[in-house]
Design brief:
The structure is a homodimer of 331-residue chains. Chain A has helices at residues 11-22, 83-93, 107-122, 152-165, 170-182, 231-245, 265-281, 312-319, and strands at residues 26-29, 34-37, 47-54, 71-77, 99-104, 127-132, 184-190, 210-213, 224-227, 252-259, 285-292, 302-309, 322-323, 328-329. By secondary structure, chain A is α/β, with parallel strands linked by helices. Chain A has two domains: 8-183, 3-Layer(aba) Sandwich (Rossmann fold), CATH 3.40.50.10440; 184-321, Dihydroxyacetone kinase, domain 2 (Hypothetical Protein Tm841, Chain: A,domain 3). In chain A, helix 6 crosses helix 7. Chain A is globular, with a radius of gyration of 19 Å. Chain A starts with 10 loop residues before the first helix and ends with a strand.
Chain lengths: 331, 331
């Protein structure tokens, strides 16, 4: 294990202390593993709460701030946050207009967010839930009934966050979040495994010269293990799988080429070049590109491609100002 | 080699094609390896040109845009850009007010930028040069007479870029760039080597359980190889070396905790927590923190810490708006 950590048991709380020290725009409680906008609760604004296992940074805490999430709950590495965290975050950001839970589709996450939503209803907080399940690689997986939630989570959080910031009602924000999820697809490829600190051994073995197509963000098995290909071959595999599930020809796309944590930016841009060419050749237009490590899997090498079929409204909301540690732009 | 690339010889030009496709704010010429602000030349504005070997992304091309660099020259991986690239970039951005070359202190870079500056003078373009040499780890190195230029390059480019944007004259921008370099120090630690694509073998060997203190950004040897430590021990080694060279007590600091390319963000925040605590305990105040992979070394695991002793003027210029692929903030 070549990790920049102290004790394996302290990774998440140490990282949260670092987040707190680096970002005065956030209220971080390393003890409970919750990260909240410093100006929460915002009276009359629908609040967005997400969360999940740690190890995917900047997802989710790096997306807390004006124009995106109101709060994030950080579970242990690759482990769902517990209901207590979720209800604490929900109550901290409730501004009286209801709270939207954005949940990646993993069994533990879905269950714990549901329990927290029930507790919130007991407190007279209206909660709506959207489950993100964008990963086309596998139908069910190690930790999932149905498809996994991966890169499109960022799209849902940004676009729904922008609508909430404009003052839309809970039902409208919920419907939009669902729409973004339905219009989005992802597919990931691993060139190396990663190691959960508390486990100390890699999540899987991958021989030199092999890669795993359709990998999840926790090292879950994908579709198949094949001979490692070039960036263009990897991108072709990912985009072909996406296109087979949701045709992209004629679409205006938001495209994320996402580094998985151990793949440097220069390689992500190599992959983006191939993706842009593939999509153009298949009749799609990339109108909003994003390249970087936004939904990672510890130090796993590889990349994930996520696409969203935009509408003029979705494009406008994507472009709306956002002010978080990991995504930041103005008018 | 677990790399997301096509042919090793095409890595830089493929990545530049990706950069061009992803950022319409840039004019990228993958053939010549130059990246220029789309609105260049800016009449009457001092232009900033930097560059160096590729493999350190987002440095330098990711810092091209309003408030920072006017152009960057991308050499082959870990290889200095050639004078032809530098003169092409210099001429492309010259707005009549002179051009500042920001050069990391490596022998090849210094030599090639000097040749380009002489060619520019023949074209009646006034060029000033600032050499960045912030790395306290070693006095001379494999590729350097004197100290290496590493993380402070980002500080120099951002702060001098802000002053140039305000309309300051060349001599003033040059003096400020020099001041930022003189007030900055860096120290890096590697937990793994990296592999130059064209070479195919790691830059050095590091046994499991070892780390290299004072590593350069090209896998050059550092000060010593020791037993791998905790994040707190690594941060203590880095900050102790910096503090011994430039005391930080009583200072208001800009601090970068920089991932080297293969270390994920969660670990960078673990390191930042330790750095913030160390600095507070030693009487420094961190007024501007930055955490992320900004000056990388391909997929090397580890981190570098860079600090700059701010003045009110430097803080104001650091805060000034910037609009580049990798650094972006508004007023």
């Amino acid at each position: 294990m070549r990790k920049l950590i102290n004790a394996p048991a302290d990774v998440v709380s140490d990282a949260l202390r670092g987040l707190a020290a680096a970002h005065s725009s956030l209220r971080v409680d390393p003890g409970s593993g919750t990260v909240v906008r410093a100006d929460a609760p915002r009276r009359g604004k629908v609040a967005l709460v997400s969360g999940g296992g740690s190890g995917h940074e900047p997802l989710h805490a790096g997306f807390v701030g004006p124009g995106m999430l109101d709060a994030a709950c950080a579970g242990e590495v690759f482990t769902s946050p517990v209901p207590d965290q979720i209800i604490a975050a929900t109550m901290a950001v409730n501004g009286g207009a209801g709270v939207l839970h954005i949940v990646k589709n993993y069994t533990g996450d879905v269950l714990n967010f549901r329990m927290a939503a029930e507790l919130a209803e007991d407190e007279d907080i209206e909660v709506a839930t959207v489950v993100v399940d964008d990963d086309v690689a596998v139908q069910d997986s190690t930790y999932t009934a149905g498809r996994r939630g991966t890169g499109a989570t960022l799209f849902v959080e940004k676009i729904a966050g922008a609508l909430a910031e404009e003052g839309a009602a809970l039902a409208e924000v919920e419907a939009l979040a669902r729409e973004v999820n339905e219009r989005s697809r992802s597919f990931g490829v691993a060139l190396s495994p990663c190691t959960v600190p508390a486990a100390g051994t890699p999540t899987f073995e991958l021989a030199e010269g092999e890669m795993e197509l359709g990998i999840g963000i926790h090292g879950e098995p994908g579709r198949e293990r094949v001979k490692a290909g070039t960036a263009s071959e990897i991108v072709d595999a990912a985009l072909s799988a996406i296109h087979a599930d949701m045709p992209v020809d004629g679409a205006e796309l938001l495209v994320l080429v996402n580094g998985m944590g151990g793949t440097p930016l220069i390689e992500q841009y190599v992959a983006y070049a191939a993706a842009a060419e593939w999509l153009t050749a298949h009749g799609a237009t990339v109108v909003r590109p994003l390249v970087g490590g936004y939904v990672t899997s510890l130090e796993m090498a590889g990349c994930m491609i996520s696409v969203c079929r935009l509408t003029p409204r979705l494009t406008r909301l994507w472009d709306a100002p956002v002010e978080t540690p990991a995504l930041r732009w103005g008018r």
